Amino acid sequence: MVVANNKISLVRERLKYFDSLPLNQEDFRDNNNQLSERKGFFARDFGMEQWDWPQGVAIYGLHLEGPLNDEYIKQWATEEINKGLPTKNVNTICPLLTLVDYPEYENMALEWMKWIEREFPRTDENGLQHITSGIDKFTVKENRQQIWVDTLFMTVLFMGKMGVKYDNQAWREDAIEQMLLHCKYLLNRKSGLFYHGWNFEEQSNYGGNFWCRGNSWITIGIPLFLEIMKGYLAKSSEVYLLNLYNNQVKTLLDLRSKDGLWHTILTDATSYTETSGSAGIIAGILLGIKNDFLTIQLSDETINDLISSLTAKIAEDGTVLGVSAGTPISCNAEDYKGIVQMPMVYGQAMTLLALSIAKSLKEKEIK
């Protein structure tokens, strides 16, 4: 298996110093930002100088490489804490998935976990309501009675990790419940793919779109959840999640585009191929191979082709290209197809995640 180590270093260094989106003030002058957000323009900063989910995914990707990036991660966290932390919500929890591994941030992680346990807004059936940051980091968008697939990576992995780290059964059980509940309402049983969200009030999957990056949170999220919860899952739950994962991967492999990646609407070949979601899918497939979760036998040629398809999207300066901007939920597939493509910090992070797992898989084979 071929892994381009020079590509990893380029992506990593570009990620560390990723700037804000090159947006003009005019992008936010329309009707309460709604038209801009439909294109992927959000008033929040999506560079590294912010505490939200893109940066949480970024430091997770960096942390996966081991101590190499410890100094940067701690410096980033300290600077963001000194600025003032944002409101607690699904997405701002994401950085703690990484930071809980550092003693300096354990008390903060415990405080936020207790908030999840006691105060997190819940939907029907006790789901984590997909509350997110609003127009700035001090406001919250409620998304009333909605659960989204993003929550599994942004919040549920952290919940499981905290339940294991502090041997708290209630936290572990809540994490398992959230994983199963989200899969219950987001799974399309016929295809094995997952919808973006579910609205309990409307009893709706919002048009039933199979969004690429949304599905990638499952492809990488289930293997990571199984890793985190090893020894704490009932065999029945483990088998259930493994079946979901393998069924999804089988369908995804059949849906690869000509360039080896996946369309932003997975089942719509007229939609553009999208790199961040594809990177998450590739990361999940490789992690499944590494941990023997994947029942499908992939040839070395196929694995190399997956990695090569991803590295082809990396520019000479390490910028990951073909990434869709911020994506709100929609009933209309055309809205997903209309999201602008531009370099994004999470595109760098998810690509780094995939390449790092590929590197560790290669090292395992050598041993």
UniProtKB/TrEMBL annotation:
<dbReference type="InterPro" id="IPR010905">
    <property type="entry name" value="Glyco_hydro_88"/>
</dbReference>
<protein>
    <submittedName>
        <fullName>Rhamnogalacturonides degradation protein RhiN</fullName>
    </submittedName>
</protein>
<dbReference type="Pfam" id="PF07470">
    <property type="entry name" value="Glyco_hydro_88"/>
</dbReference>
<keyword id="KW-0378">Hydrolase</keyword>
<dbReference type="InterPro" id="IPR012341">
    <property type="entry name" value="6hp_glycosidase-like_sf"/>
</dbReference>
<dbReference type="InterPro" id="IPR052043">
    <property type="entry name" value="PolySaccharide_Degr_Enz"/>
</dbReference>
<dbReference type="InterPro" id="IPR008928">
    <property type="entry name" value="6-hairpin_glycosidase_sf"/>
</dbReference>
